[in-house]
Amino acid sequence: MSQEIEIEYKNLLTLEEYQQVYQFLPFKSVELIEQTNYYFESSDFKLREQGAALRIRKKNDQWVLTLKQPHEEGLLETHDSLTEEEANLWIQNKMLEKPHTEKQLRELGISVDELTYLGSLTTRRKEVAYKDTTVVLDHSLYYDQEDFELEVEASSRQQGEAVFEEILTSCDIPTRNTDNKIKRFYKAKLQSE
Predict the structure, then answer these.
(1) What residues have CB less than 8 Å from 64, skipping those under 6 apart?
(2) pTM of the shown model
(3) Is 38 helix (H, G, I), strand (E, B) or coil?
């Protein structure tokens, strides 16, 4: 099965803090990646109630359906590749069952027939390898909102937390309780209605 455990640390940044981190690490030398997340949910928010989220991400002309679920070590991500045609059908609320995500959705008591397309969030991303982690700077755009975010992705909590704290301390940035992108997307969606 196409699954992985995601361990990451996040912090929203001001534009000035984003620029500080950009200067602190070698982000200038890496390519800007633009990716768009297309979010899905049931009308009664069954995914959100269980701390889960479902998205299709378009990145480098690849389409991937990902279900994120809580896991004791971080988040369990289950993936299925999609063709562009399949992704477009999902966005038109014509969901197709895909083997890995379908199995996990069933375990959550959710059928693909219950899902509906909510909208999209586009992120301009830069990422660098740093001390056995991946450090990410994101500039995200959704509805009439934009935000800046630092993410540190690691294979262990200890390493991720150490690098995260080092960057925040070195750049004199306060730790902020930061919702993930889907939660920020939901808030913006509710405010726009």
Answers:
(1) 56, 57, 79, 80, 81, 82
(2) 0.87
(3) strand
| Distance from C-alpha of 142 to C-alpha of 37, rounded to nearest angstrom | 10
**3 state DSSP class of 159:** helix
Which two three-digit tokens encode residue 149? Answer: 């975010």
Q: In the chain, which ranges are continuous DSSP H helix? A: 15-24, 46-49, 84-91, 99-107, 157-170, 181-192
**Helix residue spans in 59-180 (DSSP H):** 84-91, 99-107, 157-170
Band of pLDDT at residue 139, cut at 50, 70 and 90: very high
Dump pLDDT digits (tens) for 52-61: 999 999 988 8
β-strands 53-59, 74-82 pairing: unpaired
What is the CATH code for 3-192?
A: 2.40.320.10
Residue with tokens 């299709």: 56
**Using an 8 Å Cβ cutoff, are 121 and 181 in contact?**
yes
